[in-house]
Amino acid sequence: MYAQMIKSESSNDDPQALAEFQARIDRGERIEPKEWMPEGYRKTLIRQIGQHAHSEIVGQLPEGNWITRAPTLERKQILLAKVQDEAGHGLYLYSACETLGVTRDELFEKLHSGAMKYSSIFNYPTLTWADMGAIGWLVDGAAIMNQVPLQRTSYGPYARAMVRICKEESFHQRQGYSIMMKMAQGTPAQKEMAQDALNRFWYPSLMMFGPSDAESVHSTQNMAWKIKINTNDELRQRFVNETVPQAEYLGLTVPDEHLRWNDDKQGYDFSEPDWDEFFEVLKGNGPCNEERLGARRKAWDDGQWFREGLSAYADKQATRRTAAE
Amino acid sequence: MALDGRDPVKIDDALRPAMFDWLCRLGDNALILGHRTSEWCGHGPALEEDIALANTALDLIGHCQMWLGLAAEVEGQGRTADQLAYLRDAMAFRNVKLVELPNGDIGQTIMREFLFDAFHFELLTELSTSPNTRVAEIAAKALKEVAYQLDRASDLVVRLGDGTEESHARMQAALDHLWPYTGEMFTADAVDTAMTEAGIAPDLSDLQTRWTATVKDILDEATLTLPERRFDVHTGGKQGRHTEHLGYLLAEMQFLQRAYPGAEW
Ligand SMILES: [Fe+2]
Ligand SMILES: [Fe+2]
């Protein structure tokens, strides 16, 4: 899940308007940009969609790290296309956010200043080629788990963005799994890399869903607004149930000695990730926080003259057109 | 029949070594420029530009697969496009020096793309009607994409050249820096001449005339000044004498194939 721990904003709107708004959502109606919405709903959505958009963009970096080292021409093309898709996802989501009255530049500003977050997962390093497999399989897999229900979210532009994005994410997951498969069935060195990638990415992937929020007020409000559809624990459980058999099929071991099938709940019992580590990563103390944010800031700063050049040319052209009229 | 079910390449055996070399030039230009362009992925100056650069890189790597695939077939030693890309050392690479230079800023990247695309476009236009059908097929496929790339790069050169003072200065600096590498694209050697004489490839001096016209037009519109310096100072890439930069590029690109020989990915 690319949006973690989204706090809901309170609304100071007229109680009757709020009740009518809630009734629309309860009837399953979609909220569209021009329609009235509570201030809290709007702000919470900006936070969530914005964080999701930032995650797509920052998420280009760990995989981008291997594009120039991809082992075959075909793998290079697949990876390049995948990372490009993520940029496209960012674009759809920033556009969805713009319908709520905030510009892409404002959102970038908040990302660069640290005022807005991106998913904790992208602060982990990609150390071997197997990480391209593990990320596609686990990270895109976890994103799908979260985003499939969000296709039914109450805000129209967000829901529609999710539909397009989910299709591509399932491709990504299959491609990632195919890399894992090649490696797991490959030479002993390749299999070791695959197992190591699973060992490193397993718990950070579980963290993607965020800490348990069953009791959280934010979660309750966001679920009532259908900005959030399932609790973090529900999604994490689904993810584990689906992923463990896939790991077994690869012949790899999930790094959790407490992992067991539980017949009563028809799901696996599993160990929680280290939530202290999670909060440290959110605070900026993950292995790659500085590199990731630094790379985004550098791209933005280095690109300033480029963006200014283009807009100066557009202004000149507009002036020339007016002069010619 | 070739492996993919297409007709085998019909050429004189005497022409094979030259044609192999010549196809490697086409494939290596695409591979190395594609590689450089892909370095931008995730680091572009705007999201739209990031996506467009990735597109260009994808197109070029696609072209490289086709050209090197055909090169391997012409060579007839059982090598594949991947083996040519990942297991040759720098001296066996046949790309022009222009494409292996480091990216520099985004202006330099775009200026390089423009200077190369303008050549690439003319070359592929000619090759798409080559009597050698296998060559013509690949060229026709690649031409559609390269026509788009040339449009995009020309447009950006104009807008940035005629943008702010800073963007103008950067584009002029990029042009000045790259200019002495452009002549290599038009410097014919025995390989080029053999391919032209065999009727497969066009005469490079014809391409140069059209390239010069396009470049002058666009640079004019971009308010940039054509350097007075010779344009063929840095040659030799096509014969395997490269800049220092190519070795590092290959070390990175070929790392996995070299570190784990024979592994499948
Ligand atoms: Fe994505
Ligand atoms: Fe993805």
UniProtKB/TrEMBL annotation, chain A:
<protein>
    <submittedName>
        <fullName>Ring-1,2-phenylacetyl-CoA epoxidase subunit PaaA</fullName>
    </submittedName>
</protein>
<dbReference type="InterPro" id="IPR012347">
    <property type="entry name" value="Ferritin-like"/>
</dbReference>
<dbReference type="InterPro" id="IPR009078">
    <property type="entry name" value="Ferritin-like_SF"/>
</dbReference>
<dbReference type="InterPro" id="IPR007814">
    <property type="entry name" value="PaaA_PaaC"/>
</dbReference>
<dbReference type="GO" id="GO:0010124">
    <property type="term" value="P:phenylacetate catabolic process"/>
</dbReference>
<dbReference type="GO" id="GO:0005829">
    <property type="term" value="C:cytosol"/>
</dbReference>
<dbReference type="InterPro" id="IPR011881">
    <property type="entry name" value="PaaA"/>
</dbReference>
<dbReference type="GO" id="GO:0097266">
    <property type="term" value="F:phenylacetyl-CoA 1,2-epoxidase activity"/>
</dbReference>
<dbReference type="InterPro" id="IPR052703">
    <property type="entry name" value="Aromatic_CoA_ox/epox"/>
</dbReference>
<dbReference type="Pfam" id="PF05138">
    <property type="entry name" value="PaaA_PaaC"/>
</dbReference>
From TrEMBL, chain B:
<dbReference type="InterPro" id="IPR009078">
    <property type="entry name" value="Ferritin-like_SF"/>
</dbReference>
<dbReference type="InterPro" id="IPR012347">
    <property type="entry name" value="Ferritin-like"/>
</dbReference>
<dbReference type="Pfam" id="PF05138">
    <property type="entry name" value="PaaA_PaaC"/>
</dbReference>
<dbReference type="InterPro" id="IPR007814">
    <property type="entry name" value="PaaA_PaaC"/>
</dbReference>
<dbReference type="InterPro" id="IPR011882">
    <property type="entry name" value="PaaC"/>
</dbReference>
<dbReference type="GO" id="GO:0010124">
    <property type="term" value="P:phenylacetate catabolic process"/>
</dbReference>
<protein>
    <submittedName>
        <fullName>Ring-1,2-phenylacetyl-CoA epoxidase subunit PaaC</fullName>
    </submittedName>
</protein>
<dbReference type="GO" id="GO:0005829">
    <property type="term" value="C:cytosol"/>
</dbReference>
<dbReference type="InterPro" id="IPR052703">
    <property type="entry name" value="Aromatic_CoA_ox/epox"/>
</dbReference>
